[in-house]
Write a structure and sequence with these properties.
Chalcone isomerase; 2 domains
């Protein structure tokens, strides 16, 4: 019985290693980076009360910048607690009316477990896939939320026509010359 248990444990370790391999490759940057195969689109600044909060850059398919896969990188210019990032994300999704409060509470808890405190120069990159959202902090994977509805709602914060930051949306969706 012990050898069967060891065999199952070894098999689980191999499966876990295989499952984590794609995220490990993404963390290395360059080949296999989250933006590999995507076209750089626009970038812009997000300001509140005149203060620069972060700079955003969008990578997406060459023909449609709002259809996954796409990646959005926020480079922070202020110290912000992960809790504040989560609260702002929940507020923006709620304002867009993209889900009910029960689901939004679950999403808020998941984001709260992922988003770190950031300092000037730190960046968080979100990778929107058709069925999930993967997140990276300073090139290292910090987790994912495997829910297509969450991924659509989260990236709508910046890309939905009804975003609270229409100038930033316009800048992100502008294709570089």
């Amino acid at each position: 019985m012990l050898s069967i248990s060891n065999s199952v444990t070894a098999r689980r370790r191999v499966l876990l290693a295989l499952a984590c391999a794609p995220l490990a490759a993404l963390a290395q940057g360059g080949e296999g980076s989250p933006t590999q195969g995507l076209t750089r689109w626009g970038s812009g600044e997000f300001r509140r009360f005149g203060f620069l909060i972060y700079e955003a850059t969008l990578w997406a398919a060459a023909d449609d910048p709002v259809r996954p896969p796409l990646a959005l990188r926020l480079t922070y210019r202020r110290n912000i607690a992960g809790k504040e990032i989560t609260e702002a994300s929940v507020k923006e999704i709620r304002n867009l009316g993209l889900t009910d409060d029960n689901r939004l509470k679950i999403w808020g808890e998941r984001m709260g477990s992922l988003f770190p405190d950031v300092a000037p120069g730190d960046h968080i990159l979100g990778l929107h896939l058709p069925v999930a959202a993967h997140f990276f902090h300073n090139e290292r994977p910090i987790g994912s939320i495997d829910d297509a509805a969450f991924a659509r709602a989260f990236f709508a914060i910046w890309l939905d026509p009804n975003t609270s930051a229409p100038a930033l949306r316009s800048a992100l969706l502008t294709r570089p010359a």
